[in-house]
Write a structure and sequence with these properties.
alpha/beta, TIM Barrel
Length: 224
Amino acid sequence: MSVTYKINELFETIQGEGSFTGQPSIFLRIQGCPVGCAWCDTKHTWDIEVVDQVTPNEMVNKQEESKAWANLSEQDILEIFSQQGFNARHVVITGGEPCMVDLTPLCKLLESKGYSTQIETSGTFEIKTTESCWVTVSPKINMKGGYPVLKSALDRANEIKHPVATDAHVMDLKALLSQHNIVDKPIYLQPISQKQRATELAINTCIENNWRLSIQVHKYIGIE
């Protein structure tokens, strides 16, 4: 049975975060997120309004960030990849909060066509995908929306990537990992907004805990 997805953006770029930094990737940005992160840089993806629905062609060709989204099936998405002539074979499904919907049909189809798949999620919704999909959980702790980070999401994660700006963010992450007994997973710290203080905190904390640094390379080199 086909599933439809509300897609805000679909574009080819270089992955700038986490384990796949430097990997040519096709990004699928799904509309809708109730988590409410204060520092979110894609707030235009939060609300799902019928008035913002556009055609697939209008969504693919929009020239700036907007709330506009298109309803696409997994087959529609694959067809757009072909129409756009994308070369990348890695697909990153992000949002918004992509795990508000079942991503299994989409990832299954993409993987059957030779693509690798990756989901970037806040960990506040059950993750429904294939076994081979790479799951990046960026745990959003005590956000405005009031959604808890799920143990099932942390257990499923292939990597955990946590945004930090203050010591409190580091302590929140350590408490979460301890609470759910999460060990032996790659842990990335990502400075919020590339600020110097946040970057220094992330570097020092990574060294102290043998964690890894994710510095959003795409923002430094000026690509989407």
